[in-house]
Amino acid sequence: MSTITKTSPNHRPTHRRRRLHLTPYLFLAPALIWYLVFLVYPMYQSLTISFMSWDGLSANIRFIGLDNYRRIFFEDDTARLALWNNILWTLGTLLIPTTIGLMLAVALDRKLRGRTALRAIFYGPAVLPLVAVGMIWAWMYNPQFGFINYVLKAIGLGFLARGWLSVYETALPATFLTAVWGGVGFPMVLYLAALQAIPQEQYEAAKMDGANGRQLFWKITLPWLREANVIVFSLAVINSFKTFDLIYTMTYGGPGRATQVLGTWMYFHAFQYYNAGYGAAIAWVIAIITLVMAIPYIQRMSRD
């Protein structure tokens, strides 16, 4: 009498188990290949180029080690000025747009008539391309027909009118004001989302205990916004060190080199001065600073 042996599900053929094991990786393969070819490989190439002296076109490539990086911090006065401008830009971004965004979020979190329209109005500039924003504000700053000088003259303050983007002292603040106008909406939205997650029972209990509006803000609102602050501040620092569009569009790094930032100085060396090795080194300085500043944001998002 023959005996029929049943195969247990745990004893499937090896090739079938291997195929099931590889299936998820096959689905991931197209995105992974794209990531490796268009992101990882170019990053590796740029890192390699940053240790070279190369014009970006010829076959004459010479290894110079860390000379490009040493030049950035110890020899190139413009690179140090650009780094300082990035630091000033970052500090200003942390103080002004984030503070205004928080104030707008607190104000628009209340039950106000037309608050949805107001939210859209304040957030609107954040969705505009920075190149378009830069061009619009450059026209507004124009010394001959610009809107800002026109208004100053119309209200009797014509003595304040000037070429805002062509004067050394005002060029960087003027471009930063443009960045503030376009950068308030994003932190406002993040803070609005965080505010709506605060339990209203805490506010009601505090009001019953006699807390006023200022005490509610400092004792309840701000502590609940701790995680939102990490995200807002991290993104502000990252975006500040990647600043390029507004500076390039509005001032082209001028007057002179007064408004150069690391992003524009990298662009000029890599694509206009034919110094690809030095440009790549500046790009990696930006990347390293950005990565260090992004660590709190990555940790917070990974925890969530």
Mean pLDDT: 89
Major sheet characteristics? 2 strands, antiparallel
Percent of residues in β-strands: under 5%
Total number of strands: 2
> What is the share of helical residues?
55-70%
> What spatial order of strands do you see in the largest sheet?
1-2
Report the total helices.
14
What structural class results from the helix and strand content? mainly alpha
Instruction: Report the radius of gyration as a whole number of Å.
Output: 27 Å
Distance between the termini: 63 Å
Low-confidence stretches: 1-7
Question: SSE order in H/E notation?
Answer: HEEHHHHHHHHHHHHH
Shape: flat
Report on this model:
The protein is mainly alpha-helical. The chain has helices spanning 14-49, 67-74, 77-108, 115-123, 130-140, 147-154, 168-183, 185-195, 200-208, 213-224, 226-241, 245-250, 262-271, 276-303; strands at 52-53, 62-63. Strands 1-2 form a two-stranded antiparallel sheet. A hairpin with an 8-residue loop joins strand 1 and strand 2 (62-63). The longest helix has 36 residues, at 14-49.
